[in-house]
Amino acid sequence: MGQPTFWDNPDKAQAVIAQLKPLNGLLKPYEDMAAEAGDLQALAELAEEDASLDAELEQQLPSFEKRLAEFELRAMLDGPQDASNAYLRIQAGTGGTEACDWAQMLMRMYARWAEAHGYQVEIADELRNEEAGIRSATLRVVGDYAFGNLQSEAGVHRLVRISPFDANARRQTSFAAVDVMPEIDGTIEIDIRPEDLKRDTFRSGGPGGQHQNKTESGVRYTHIPTGIAAESRSERSQHKNDDMALKMLKAKLYRIEEQKRKAEVEKLYDEKGEVSWGSQIRNYVLQPYTLAKDVRTDVQTAQVQNVLDGDLDEFIQAYLRQKAERRHKKAKAT
Fold first, then answer.
1. Quick one: which of 164, 189, 179 has its CA closest to 286?
2. Helix (H, G, I), strand (E, B) or coil at 168
3. Residue 116 has pLDDT above 90, yes or no
4. What is the mean pLDDT of the chain?
5. Bond prior to 288 in cis (omega within 30° of 0)
6. Could you give the CA distance from residue 308 to residue 90 in angstroms, rounded to a whole number?
7. pLDDT tops 80 at residue 213
């Protein structure tokens, strides 16, 4: 920022300034806690000589330990795009209306979690099912470390319940896939050759009647070399949908390149709408008992309704800790 040419490109300058906020959100708490730790250490030494200070020390420690635990989780989000906004894509698996209803339940769950944490949520794309639920949807979650937190949710989610769409009230199993991508800011260049892009427009659809979209405002971009596509239909303006679809495509391409570099490429879904069941990460059971269990971390709770209402922190934090531990072990081994 101290360079004389910093403001020559205002858009790029603003993008760099935006990077300061999450960095300061990590550094300032660290500096504050380091100072407080020094004060507590001094108090502990005094308490060894004066037992009357024990009560004051015991009163201050729990609050400090809680903030320290929260800081440790934030410090784990040190990936190159962890501080970015996120695109969260939900796609119903096979199973018709049952799976589409489950996909909509997941969309509500993530929207509730995001709003509870002060994130702004926008529907970037939504394809509704005729009877109930959604076939697919993409949420744009705006806020510091949105991607870092939500990366834990990528995979297949499985629901077991008594079907509300079955007249015989039989138990049904439904699947939906979730993918999470970082929003690429202006400081990272994703070079896509114009000849490698295919652009299609389509009617966005709607509930019918006077609200039916009669113009081709929906936009789909396909990256020809990879076959990866992204589309947006949530805006009435084709220009806005065009911009959103291109941003999502760049986010997908960036994510795949990151996975290749980390040798972790695994398709959680493909553009044909087929879900890869082998990627299952979490089960939500409502019948014959209640249990939400993450198969990666073994974190589980019987309070499934709370989870479906957005109480995901325990699952997210366990994933981040497991990821940090694996990285630490790998670093020690090398």
1. 164
2. coil
3. yes
4. 83
5. yes
6. 15
7. no
